[in-house]
Amino acid sequence: MSNMRFPRQEIVERVRKQYPSGTRVCLMRMKDVQAPPIGTFGTVTAVDDTASLVMAWDNGSHLNVIYGEDEVAKVEATTICYGQKEEWTSRQKAREFFLQAMMGCDPDSSECSRYSKIYAELVMGRSLCTD
């Protein structure tokens, strides 16, 4: 007989609402020797009946995120600047980064205009911000 305890249905439904298919996440902690490296990004493909996240990791792994054991952070914003895509688990950190970039550039430069546009979009709450 197994000692494994399954989460209540209410918890499963809450996790499904919190992480719908397509949600982007970043791995913060995983207790598995075959785990992707911490900081790996991935896409939630489903939430199973144990409230675990069924994953498609960007590095090709498909190891699930186990409810109550492993930890991920949702991607809050994606920025594209000079063709470089960056995913941010903290909108605040993204704003701070682009504010610092604005403070370090010539206010009349196209570079500063790019940073300002992305910063404004982050402040407005957009999830995809481009230059």
Q: Could you give the topology of this structure?
A:
Layout lengths: L8 H10 L5 E6 L11 E7 L5 E5 L13 E4 L2 E5 L2 E5 L2 H13 L6 H14 L4 E3 L1
Parallel strand pairs: 5-7
Antiparallel strand pairs: 1-2, 1-4, 2-3, 5-6
Descriptive overview:
With 131 residues, the protein is of the alpha+beta class. Helices cover 28% and strands 27% of the residues. The chain contains 3 helices and 7 strands; from the N terminus they run αββββββααβ. The strands form 2 sheets. Strands 3-2-1-4 form a 4-stranded antiparallel β-sheet. A 3-stranded mixed β-sheet has the order 6-5-7. Strand 2 (41-47) and strand 3 form a beta hairpin. Helix 2 packs antiparallel against helix 3 (110-123). The termini are far apart. The mean pLDDT is 94.
> On the 0-100 scale, what is the average pLDDT?
94
Rg, alpha carbons: 18 Å
Order of helices and strands: HEEEEEEHHE
- Largest sheet: spatial strand order: 3-2-1-4
Sheet/helix structural class: alpha+beta
Low-pLDDT parts are none
